[in-house]
Amino acid sequence: MKTVNHKTPSVDGKGIMMGRAAFTDDFAEPNSLIVKMLRSPHAFARIKNIDTSKARALPGVEIVLTHHDVPRKSFTRAGQGYPEPSPHDKFILDEYVRYVGDEVACVAAINESVADQALKLIEVEYEVLEPVLDFEKAFEHQSVIHPEEGICEMFPIGFEPKKNVAASYHMHVGDVDAVMAKCDVVVEETYYTQAQAHAMLEPHSTNARLDYHNRLVIYSSTQTPYHVRRILSQTLDLPISKIRLIKPRVGGGFGGKQALHGEFFVSLVTLRTKKPSKMVYSRQEVFESSYTRHPMRITMRLGAMKDGTIRAIDCYSLSDTGAYGEHALTVFMITGSKVLPLYNKVDAVRFGGRVVYTNHVSAGAYRGYGAIQGNFALESVIDVLAKKLNMDPLELRRKNMMEEGETSPIFEIMGEGTEGTAMNMDTCKLRYCLDRGAELIGWKDKYPFVRVSPHKVRSVGMAIAMQGSGIPYIDMAAATIKLNDDGFYNLTVGATDIGQGSDTILTQIAAETLMTTMDKVVIYSSDTDLTPFDVGAYASSTTYVSGNAVLKAAKSMKTMLIEEAAHYLKVSIDEVAFDGEKFVAKDKTITLSDMANKLYYNENQHQLTATESYVGHKSPPPFMAGFVEIEMDTETYEYKILHYVSVVDCGTTINPMLARGQVEGGIVQGLGMACFEEVKYSNRGKLNSNSFLYYKIPTMLDIDKLTTEFAESYEESGPYGAKSVGEIGIDTPPAAIANAVANAINIRINKLPITPEKIFQGANQEK
Predict the structure, then answer these.
(1) For residues 635 and 280, what is the distance between their CA atoms, to the nearest angstrom?
(2) Which of 14, 217, 369, 560 has its CB surrounded by the most CB atoms within 10 Å?
(3) What's residue 14's pLDDT?
(4) Do the strands 33-39 and 277-280 form a parallel or antiparallel pair, or are they unpaired?
(5) Own/partner pairs for 391-398, CB < 8 Å, 24+ apart?
């Protein structure tokens, strides 16, 4: 292959490095109204009265909106499939506010200073209600967070708002209790995962204007342009034909931009004032008023025989969705569906639990959602079992883990909705990943720990993981390839590049198929008027789903080119050979450039355009083994990450450089969740960790060394053998760190993040 599986530079990398890339705010009209939000100071309250007269009278204020002034239609902000698996429990503005930072009123003014003054002039009388701040006490709490009428589920997801339940689910295979009773060893542990802030570089940003056709044109830093357009149409009662959504460069998303944020407000302001408007979240607003990862409590119970055969897994999860139910069900389901199949040889498995509302910042999509929470619990308890059986954790995993050619009944039972899709592991190099990772970290010589000084030890820990490649039978992508008159191509895709390099990956696939160079394929992405449909950048779908659409379109274009060449060369199609630049048949030759010029200017004139769509019928998982070496001070319990090794089976790496960046970016985020990051609230529900001063994310100084390798693998259903790689890297670090800490000092921390303070407390409890 000439282009695929090569370290090709990003098509937009140089432009971004030179500051030429245009982001959302760069497209705002110079005279745009500045849109700002008045936000709730209370975790839970009802607005008894709101007086905006002084704000409306302030010179420079164009419009003030409250819940009395906007459409009353319930929806979900989550950009997912349709009908949405998230409950419709949100209104543009509501008489209830459900967390500190929830929207109360919207102001649009000629500049930021006037807008800020106007916000201070709005007088609000609140009926302060008792908030629900402990998700373990939320179920059937006396405070009902969503008492309003008009909210609903789109299909049965266990939605019980009067009990503070956004979703619930239960399933089983076999009789777990009966199998457990026959096991030699049963271990049970409960684990807690925290909320995690996205910390993307570019904050949420959006702007709107009316074009000369009086259509609403929105620029948005979003991962899901088509979903945003659809939800705006539904909530604003505006025909979808009247909305154009454009996604420019995006400065990171990680799932946080899979939902709508300011788009509702700039749309309403522009529609009512007929003036352009823009809204850019402050960093404080990104922390306080957008999304976090779902905190969870997960209880894992394993039953095994003395020889290490795991016979039963029992998992019960409780998830905190915060004030609204965005991604409530899907995140919860992934906790089981992309985790439990790792150990597929059990006789019985059970999974269940519920997702509850609290008066915290709404939780939503975050890279690896659900999988990282479930993986932390399962891969930690696997090590607990290994210790009880006096087995090397690697050997326990080798004996029980998924292998190539195998399957799990869970695939068919559970998906991201309520039903899954049966599939076999046509590619699974997990054993190689585990063995190679152990070799790279030096497991044989370092497990469980090595003392390097009287008060310092070095220990190792590890975990395995699986993810997915899009959502079968739901995620759809399309691509269009157009031949131009000089023999180069335009590739238009709905796929959304949010910094992960999808524009480059898709260009490589097209160039490889058309046997041309990357510079001959010019890509355009994510304009709902001009590019074909795509669900967007989430669920690790772009390379596999969007890539397959591009591959199909490029193959169709290649067929068209050969047919046209046969016409010009006056031969049969079978006689034509094409090398990407010229067509040859016997002693006749025509270049692609010459043929394109003839086609458009001289003979048999017509446009060559190929459009193809792809919907996956399976979601082939990438697999990974992650290994960490830490150094711990046994007196202070401070520890340092010396080395993190990851070996990944993601099929063919379309671009090894970008794949490595995705894996290592995920690892760093996973290490942040494992070691540092923590969303902290006051006892009245105010977010205290609302800036980078109070919210620590990992830096280069926190990790000494990263080593990433890829297993040789080829997934037949993927474009050029590729599976996904966007999320898999984030899954293993929490469990690997927990296991390394336990191996270092025999203290197991079951609540993230794993800090020296928690280890100290654990040590004292042991004493």
Answers:
(1) 46
(2) 369
(3) 87
(4) parallel
(5) 391/308, 392/447, 393/462, 393/739, 394/434, 394/438, 394/443, 394/462, 395/308, 396/308, 396/310, 397/434, 397/464, 398/431, 398/434
Is the predicted pLDDT of residue 766 greater than 80, yes or no?
Answer: no
pLDDT-derived band at 17 (thresholds 50, 70, 90) equals: confident
pLDDT in tens, 333-378: 999 999 999 999 999 999 999 999 999 999 999 999 999 999 999 9
Provide the b/e sequence for 488-510 (b: ≥16 CB within 10 Å).
Answer: bbebbbbbbbbbbbbbbbbbbbb
Tell me 546's DSSP state.
I
The number of beta carbons lying within 10 Å of the beta carbon of residue 642 is: 17
With beta carbons less than 8 A apart as the criterion, state whether 756 and 400 touch: no
Q: Is 505 helix (H, G, I), strand (E, B) or coil?
A: helix
Rg of the chain (C-alpha set): 27
CA distance 453 to 455: 5
For the residues 591-615, what does the mean pLDDT come to? Answer: 95
Instruction: Compute CA distances 133 → 45, 89, 104, 656, 681, whole Å.
Output: 14, 19, 20, 44, 9
| Distance from the first to the final alpha carbon of the chain | 61
Q: How many CA atoms lie within 13 A of 415 on its CB side?
A: 21
Please name the residues in contact with 325: beta carbons below 8 A apart, sequence gap of 6 or more.
76, 86, 87, 89, 159, 166, 167, 355, 357
Does 321 have pLDDT greater than 90? yes
Give the position of tokens 């004996």.
Answer: 399
* DSSP secondary structure letters along 688-753: S--STTTS----GGGBS-EEEEE-----TTSGGGB---TTGGGTSHHHHHHHHHHHHHS----BSS
- Using one digit for the tens of pLDDT, what is the confidence trace for 236-264? 999 999 999 999 999 999 999 999 999 99
> Around Cβ 603, how many Cβ atoms within 10 Å?
10
Contacts of 501 (CB under 8 A, 6+ apart): 10, 655, 658, 661, 662
pLDDT of 117 over the 80 cut: yes
Give me the pLDDT at residue 1, please: 80
CA angle 284, 287, 289 (to 5 degrees): 90
Apex 537 CA angle, 491 and 325, nearest 5: 150
Greatest extent of the chain over all pairs of C-alpha atoms, in Å = 89
- Which structural domains are found in the chain, ordered by start? 17-129+201-252+257-289 (3.90.1170.50), 296-471+618-766 (3.30.365.10), 476-615 (3.30.365.10)
Residue whose token pair is 């296991």 = 739
Beta bridge partners of 280: 205
- Long-range CB pairs of 674-677, under 8 A, 24+ apart, other chains included: 674/733, 674/734, 674/736, 674/737, 674/738, 674/752, 674/753, 674/754, 675/641, 675/702, 675/737, 675/753, 675/754, 675/755, 676/702, 676/753, 676/755, 677/194, 677/196, 677/197, 677/753
**pLDDT attached to residue 604:** 86
Residue showing tokens 């954790």: 393
pLDDT > 90? residue 490: yes
Kindly give the pairing relationship between strand 61-65 and strand 103-109.
antiparallel
Measured CA to CA, the distance from residue 200 to residue 78 in angstroms comes to 18
Tally of CB atoms within 10 A around 564: 22
Return the SS3 of 432: helix
3-state DSSP call for residue 243? strand
Distance CA 732, CA 673 (A): 11
For the entire predicted model, the pTM comes to: 0.97
pLDDT digits (tens, 9 = 90+) for 277-301: 999 999 999 999 999 999 999 999 9
By CB atoms closer than 10 A (0-12, 13-18, 19+), residue 193 is buried
pLDDT at position 767 is: 62
